[in-house]
C-alpha cells in the first residue's frame, strides 16, 4: 500500500516549507519527499491550499475502557481522535479496573490495533489501584508497552510515595505524569475559588491546591535529578513556577488544555455541568498566562484531557456532576482560532506543541516530524475553513462539551496514520 500526498505545504516545528512538495508514504513510513513525485499507481491525497502537519499527538486522553464503555470505548475514542487529527494518543489509567498491570495494558493495545485508527499508548498507574500507597510494577508496565505512568484523575499526594516513584521511574527510564491537585486543599471544591464561585454559591477549589504540588514536584525532580511531567496546568502561578524551574535547568515539562486557554470561570455562570472540569476553569489572568506559557515554551504540549461522561451522569446538579469535558474533536479548531489566528502561536509552534513536543516528552522517537524514514503519521488541516461545533457531529460516544455552538476557524481535513487514511472530512 502506497499513498502519495500532492502539493503539501509542510509545517514542521523547525520549519514551514513555503514551496509545495509531494510526500510518498510506503509501508507505514515516509519514503520520499520531493518537489514532484509521479502519480504512478499510488493512492492520491491532494493537499492543495491546506497545511500538512506531522500527525498530532495527545498525551492526555480518557478512553474509559475497561469499565465505563457507556461513556467511551477504545473504538469510539480512537474514531473521535482520528476525526480530531490525532494519530497517537496516551490513555489515562483511571478505568475500572485501573490500568495497573500488564494484562490490561496489553488488552487496550490489542483492541486499539484491532480498530486500527490511532496508535494508543496506555498510561499505567503509579500506584496500585491509584490508591496512592503501593507502587505498581513499573518494569512490568513498561515491558507491556507503557511509555508513561500517572495516577491521573488523582494526585500522588504523599511526598514519600512520589519520591520513590520518581526514583524507580528514573531507573527504568519511564516518564511520570503528575495530576497536580492536593485534595486536602481542594476540599470538595467544584469550580475555581473566586468571585464567581462566591456569586454562584458553589464551593471553590483554590489555585494553591495545584501550585503546592507543582512546587513540590519541581523540588523533588531537582533533588533527584530526574524528569517530571505536570498535567493540565491551569494557573498563572504554575506557569511562573515552571518557567523558573526550567531556567534553573530542572527537567520539568508541562501541558495545557484548550479549555484552559479559552474559557474562564465565568463560563460556569449558567450552571452548565460541561464546564465542570478538573482542574477548574480559572480567571482571565490565568488564561492569559497559559497562552503566554504556550508561546514561550514554558508549557511544552497542548493536550485535550478528553474526559467523556454520559448525559445521565452530567445531567444532575453542579455539585454532583463528574468533572470533565470531551476535547479530541475541538482541539485543532480551538488552537487555530484562539492561538494561531490571534498570533499567539506561529504554525511551526503549533506543530511543536501538538506533535513534536509530545513526541519528545512521550518518548516517541519516530514521530513528531515529517521527514524521510519517520512514521507515516500526517494531519492535513485547512486553516481557513470555518465551522460550528455541533452535538450531532461528535464521533465521541459522549457529548459533554462546553464549546457546542461555538464558531471555529481551522478544520482537520485528512488524518493519516501509519500510511493509511483514518479520517477524511
Ligand atoms: O476533569 C477531569 N476529568 N479531570 C481529570 O483529571 C479526570 C477526568 C476524568 O477522568 O473524568
Summed up:
The chain is α/β, with parallel strands linked by helices.
Task: Give your account of this protein's structure.
Helix 7 runs parallel beside helix 8 (236-247). This protein folds into two domains: 2-51 and 375-395 and 404-424, Urease, subunit C, domain 1 (Roll), CATH 2.30.40; 53-362, Metal-dependent hydrolases (TIM Barrel, Alpha-Beta Barrel), CATH 3.20.20. The protein contains 13 helices and 19 strands. It has helices spanning 74-83, 102-115, 138-144, 159-171, 183-186, 195-200, 208-224, 236-247, 258-262, 284-296, 311-314, 331-340, 347-362; strands at residues 2-12, 15-16, 21-26, 29-34, 43-46, 51-54, 56-61, 86-91, 119-122, 148-150, 175-178, 191-192, 204-205, 228-230, 252-256, 301-302, 378-388, 407-417, 420-424. Helix content is 31%, strand content 23%. The strands form four sheets. Strands 1, 2, 3, 4, 5, 6, 17, 18 and 19 form a nine-stranded mixed beta sheet that branches. A five-stranded parallel beta sheet has the order 10-11-14-15-16. With 425 residues, the protein is α/β, with parallel strands linked by helices. The longest helix has 17 residues, at 208-224. The structure holds (4S)-2,6-dioxohexahydropyrimidine-4-carboxylic acid (DOR). (4S)-2,6-dioxohexahydropyrimidine-4-carboxylic acid is lined by residues 62, 94, 152-153, 179, 277-278, 305, 307, 322-324.
Amino acid at each position: 500500500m502506497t499513498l502519495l500526498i500532492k502539493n503539501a505545504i509542510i509545517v514542521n516545528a523547525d520549519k514551514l516549507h513555503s514551496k509545495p512538495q509531494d510526500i510518498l508514504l510506503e509501508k507505514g513510513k515516509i519514503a520520499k519527499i520531493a518537489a514532484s513525485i509521479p502519480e504512478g499507481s499510488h493512492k492520491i491525497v491532494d493537499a492543495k491550499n491546506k497545511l500538512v502537519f506531522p500527525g498530532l499527538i495527545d498525551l492526555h486522553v480518557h478512553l474509559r475502557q475497561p469499565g465505563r464503555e457507556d461513556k467511551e470505548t477504545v473504538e469510539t475514542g480512537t474514531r473521535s481522535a482520528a476525526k480530531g487529527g490525532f494519530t497517537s494518543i496516551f490513555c489515562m489509567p483511571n478505568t475500572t479496573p485501573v490500568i495497573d498491570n500488564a494484562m490490561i495494558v496489553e488488552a487496550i493495545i490489542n483492541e486499539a490495533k484491532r480498530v486500527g485508527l490511532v496508535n494508543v499508548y496506555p498510561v499505567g498507574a503509579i500506584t496500585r489501584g491509584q490508591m496512592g500507597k503501593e507502587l505498581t510494577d513499573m518494569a512490568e508496565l513498561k515491558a507491556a508497552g507503557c511509555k508513561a505512568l500517572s495516577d491521573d484523575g488523582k494526585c500522588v499526594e504523599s511526598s514519600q510515595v512520589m519520591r520513590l516513584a520518581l526514583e524507580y521511574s528514573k531507573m527504568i527510564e519511564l516518564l511520570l505524569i503528575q495530576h497536580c491537585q492536593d485534595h486536602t486543599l481542594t476540599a470538595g471544591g467544584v469550580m475555581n475559588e473566586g468571585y464567581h464561585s462566591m456569586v454562584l454559591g458553589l464551593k471553590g477549589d483554590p489555585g494553591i491546591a495545584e501550585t503546592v504540588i507543582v512546587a513540590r514536584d519541581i523540588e523533588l525532580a531537582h533533588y533527584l535529578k530526574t524528569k517530571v511531567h505536570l498535567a493540565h496546568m491551569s494557573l498563572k502561578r504554575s506557569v511562573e513556577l515552571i518557567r523558573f524551574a526550567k531556567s534553573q535547568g530542572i527537567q520539568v515539562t508541562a501541558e495545557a488544555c484548550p479549555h484552559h486557554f479559552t474559557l474562564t470561570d465565568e463560563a460556569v455562570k449558567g450552571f452548565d455541568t460541561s464546564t465542570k472540569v478538573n482542574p477548574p476553569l480559572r480567571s482571565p489572568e490565568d488564561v492569559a498566562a497559559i497562552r503566554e506559557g504556550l508561546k514561550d515554551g514554558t508549557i511544552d504540549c497542548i493536550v485535550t484531557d478528553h474526559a467523556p461522561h454520559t448525559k445521565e451522569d452530567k445531567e444532575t446538579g453542579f455539585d454532583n456532576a463528574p468533572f470533565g469535558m470531551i476535547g479530541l474533536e475541538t482541539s485543532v479548531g480551538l488552537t487555530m482560532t484562539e492561538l494561531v489566528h490571534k498570533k499567539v502561536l506561529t504554525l511551526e509552534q503549533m506543530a511543536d506543541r501538538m506533535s513534536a513536543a509530545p513526541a519528545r516528552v512521550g518518548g516517541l522517537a519516530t514521530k513528531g516530524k515529517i521527514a524521510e524514514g519517520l512514521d507515516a503519521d500526517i494531519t492535513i488541516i485547512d486553516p481557513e475553513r470555518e465551522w460550528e461545533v455541533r452535538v450531532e457531529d461528535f464521533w465521541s460516544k459522549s457529548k459533554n462539551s462546553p464549546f457546542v455552538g461555538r464558531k471555529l476557524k481551522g478544520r482537520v481535513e485528512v488524518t493519516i496514520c501509519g500510511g493509511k487514511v483514518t479520517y477524511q472530512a
